[in-house]
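Dear colleagues,

For the upcoming journal club I promised to circulate an example of a predicted protein-ligand complex. I picked one with iron/sulfur cluster because it came up in last month's discussion. The inputs are reproduced below in full, followed by the predicted structure.
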Amino acid sequence: MQNEIQVLKNAVPPLLKWYAVHKRELPWRNTRDPYKIWVSEIMLQQTRIEAVKGYYAAFLEKFPTVKALAAASEEEVLKAWEGLGYYSRARNLHKAAKRIAEEGFPRDFAGVRSLPGVGDYTAGAICSIAYGLPCPAVDGNVLRVLTRLTADERNIDEMSTRIAFSDLLREVYPAEAAEFCQSLMELGEIVCLPNGEPLCARCPWQKMCAAHLAKREADFPVRSEKKARKTQRIYVYVLKKEGKFALRKRGKEGLLAGLWEFPNGTTDESALYGRPLAEKWARHVFTHLEWDMTGYLIETAGSFPQFTFVTPEEMQKSYALPSAFKAFKEWVK
Ligand code: SF4
């Protein structure tokens, strides 16, 4: 431990220097506003930076303050989130906004951590970046960088490893907390890449990194074996009736809870609705599950009171459909 603290202490100055020169210009990097940083951190959970950029700007335009977000309806918030996935993030953001609008944005780690949808990593990032507090934000990216630097063979999927590295970082947090937090993330995102392909020649730690010096970059991080994803067959029906399309709302629990969707099921019931005009196959990958989807476009004459029929314009404006159904949305016109 003592040795690792020293290694990390020595690693901080070159990292900060590197970050000052090489950091990318990202829309959320020029602010200390906790609301804006919070929104960016929630969007960035499980989503690539490139995908988040456009959503972030549009979301803040629509909800420029936490009060504006709190005053919106859940449908409006979900609509602004449409396509980003993991919709519970949007619901929690909305729930938390209502609390913040009344009580103000929490100013310390415990307060931030208590917001719905905010875990240790996100609370650490918000406190470091918005308030300059020495609160480590440790995710898989940061753990990869740190276990390579120290050639640490502990399994990063174990909570105890995460806690150990959080403790370690707390010991070495410099006064430039915001920059330090972001520089660790940035190194993991643009230099110390996963899958044994780090760009060590560009790394500020190349002369001190234990994994690199031993040519063992690919051995780190040590992880548990991944469980295979399950595949589920899904049949999707894009039902058109008098220029309108059928939607229904998913249940309140489970995958994509509460979102609108095209009618669908696990057995082929297309004959119930009519003769398909078009058919198409698509795949959507969730974290633990994969949907193998066959979609049908069907002009129907039947009566289906269980569905809500909406025009393409209404769907575009007010109904948030998960990106799993994106391939079939092309038929809506
Ligand atoms: S030297 Fe290579 S392995 Fe080590 S931290 Fe830098 S990029 Fe990662």
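Two points we might discuss: The two ends are 62 Å apart (CA to CA). Residues 145, 148-149, 191-192, 198, 200, 203, 205-206, 209, 211-212, 217 surround iron/sulfur cluster (CB under 6 Å).

See you all on Thursday,
B. R.
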